[in-house]
Amino acid sequence: MDFISIVSIFVLACFVGYYVVWSVTPALHTPLMSVTNAISSVIVVGALIASAASGSAGSKWLGLVAVALASVNIFGGFAVTQRMLSMYKKRERTDG
Amino acid sequence: MGEAALAQPAWVLLAYLIAGVCFILALRGLSSPESSRRGNRIGMIGMGIAVATTLVTHVPTVTGIVTGSSLFGRAELYRIVSQLNVTTLVEILIAIVIGGGIGLITARKIQMTAMPQLVAAFHSLVGMAAVLVGAAAYLNPSAFGIADSAGHILQISRIEMGLGVAIGAITFSGSVIAFLKLNGNMSGKPIILPLRHVINLGTLAAILILIAYFTRNEAPAIFFPIMGLSFAIGFLLIIPIGGADMPVVISMLNSYSGWAAAAMGFTLHNSAMIITGALVGSSGAILSYIMCRAMNRSFISVISGGFGGEAVSSGASAAIDRPYKRGSAEDAAFLMKQADQVIIVPGYGMAVSQAQHALKEMADKLKAEGVRVKYAIHPVAGRMPGHMNVLLAEANVPYDEVFELDDINSEFAQTDVAFVIGANDVTNPAARTDKSSPIYGMPVLDVEKARTVLFVKRSMGGVGYAGVDNELFYRDNTMMLLSDAKKMVEEIVKALG
């Protein structure tokens, strides 16, 4: 991908983010933070590339540590979000 | 060379794009609690796609040559055998299992009241991961496809990498400080260094100059100082910010962690990372904006810090002598039983004393008496956006009984009892009336318009995080319930029979 198409993706994604986040209900702002935490750990992609590459032992080790840190976030972030979301319940309808 | 290494097959580009779209859908799901759980699962799928794609394309294959001979022994056949490099894969899996295990255990054990600390801790990990990936790319640029034929890092990549490492380092050290403050390991009081604005701006300028110079000279002597100074500035930026401003800080760090991921996405030409970074970056920025607006503060005044550190200057001694009405749990129970409608206003104090479960019990008893019970949440109640909503949800309070400031504020005038528990500044009428008050102009819940205000507070001495006295305590229609929040609510439950 050339630089300009990357910038295009970035700018458009900022707009998507703007509109999507404004539509998030304030009651779910805490899960929003924990799930954004989880997804920003997609940085694990970079960490995996470094861990899998040969040529620099230092780079490889930094990559492996980054994989572990990002994994804490990915698993922890999604799990805690799921745990929170499962607590949000509607009022039970009582008949009569 | 560099360009060639960047040319990824179309399916790979597509897979990362799909991962990015999954993340958009994950956030989109949060527009309502019903769709949110599915959204979260889509997010997990997206992450799975991104990780799998990277593993498939990057885990190297070991190439060996097997020699054999044909049936007639005339010519030797060379067969090239490729197989997965198992060692690398195992190393990566070990890293994932260690990290993932820690993450899952933490997610299961963490108390909901501790969510702000947990989120701060998670932010710091994203920041650190960004720094490590940046450093790894610096040490082995050809693996990331950002080296030119001479092995030098491409000019544009140096800027992206420098920015990514800087933002990541700021996110890391800033989040560590935010964690320590939220977790109580460090005082919530702002720590004010002399000349801090000069120091901070000077450090920021130095970082930017170094990044600019990094494009001309890729020596470690340039790269590592960028990292070091960024760690320092993250630390310096957060220490002067007081406890009351933590909702803004934590949102801001959320935003930074996104921009760090985006900058790394630019370095790696990876659309999943860029899309996610932009999403998370805007998410954090919008939350910061919502929090600032809810406190009527400008973003600049929040990040320059110092708020809430000064003791009450005037009227502190007068405040203690002013007459107020004090009530008992029985009085409160009697008043609420008679009411048509009770609005509960929870704040951070409720979280501290873990009163949410007792509160739910109280609400159930009142409902059994035919009282309508609603909850009113101020956007900055608690230590992070939406904190109160999660705590109430944990106590099984249905989310359709919980209302935001704008939706419920007009109802206080027709309400018999406003039950304020652990909130203070967000109910202070001075925000509307007293121009000299530090919180003047902040939108507040108009609790004093209710016929009676029951105000649960530990003692009359303390002031809210903004360090201002609350006029509400001394009004004729206010009854102070001086006790620990949880204990008081439990006593009311008992009195309700």
| General shape of chain A | flat
**Fraction of residues of chain A in helices?**
over 70%
Q: How are helices and strands ordered from N to C of chain A?
A: HHHH
Low-confidence stretches of chain B: 1-5, 309-319
Shape of chain B: elongated
- Along the chain, the helix and strand elements of chain B come as HHHEEHHHHHHHHHHEHHEHEHEHEEH
- Secondary-structure-based class of chain A equals mainly alpha
Largest sheet of chain A: none
Structural class of chain B comes to alpha/beta
Oligomeric state, counting identical vs distinct chains:
heterodimer
Count of DSSP helices of chain B? 19
**What summary fits the major beta sheet of chain B?**
6 strands, parallel
Helix content of chain B: 55-70%
Tally of DSSP helical segments of chain A? 4
How much β-strand is present in the residues of chain B? 5-15%
Descriptive account of the structure:
The complex is a heterodimer of chains A (96) and B (497). Chain A is mainly alpha-helical and 96 residues long. Helices cover 73% and strands 0% of the residues of chain A. Chain A has helices at residues 3-22, 29-40, 44-52, 57-85. Chain A starts with a helix and ends in an 11-residue tail after the last helix. The mean pLDDT of chain A is 92. Chain B is 57% helix and 10% strand. In chain B, β6 (417-421), α18 (430-433) and β7 form a beta-alpha-beta unit. At the A-B interface, α1, α2, α3 and α4 of A face α2, α3, α4, α5 and α9 of B.
